[in-house]
Input
Amino acid sequence: MTQQPEPSAPAPRSLYRLDRAHAMLSIGAYVLVAGVAVLVAFWTVQFDPWGAIVAATGAVVAVLALVLAARLALRPPVVLMLDGAGYRGRVRAQRHAFEGRWKDVRDVKASSRHLRFTTVTNDEQVFPLETIDTRDRARLLRDVYDRLNTAHGYTRFTFD
Output
């Protein structure tokens, strides 16, 4: 008569960050802006008196762009957050923001590219899975499954 242990409760909050491939596009744009700002700064410094002001502004823009690129490279932004009450994403699901409560979710469908939530009001919310690192996708799907089961009171079978 062995009983299987109850599934552990999901973590209080799960964060899923932007995939590095998507972050690299923004990092490239920031570096490009920094390069253009430096080019403008060097070119305009020769003109008096406004050249120095434009050059200083270009230098500030270049430094700011490089700081933003470094921040994005070291810590990509959170694109999806799951907690005990619901979910919230930084993407738009057609007309609405991708957010809701677990108790309002009626159906979930996962494909290789999208995670689709259908709510009790028949609204469909679509989250693009390609924005999340491929190594985190299985963890995300398991986390959604566990949180839905917890919200609706489902437990695993136990055998006596």
The beta strands are 13-17, 78-83, 86-93, 96-101, 105-110, 114-119, 124-128. The helical segments are 20-44, 50-74, 134-151. Residues 20-74 form one domain.
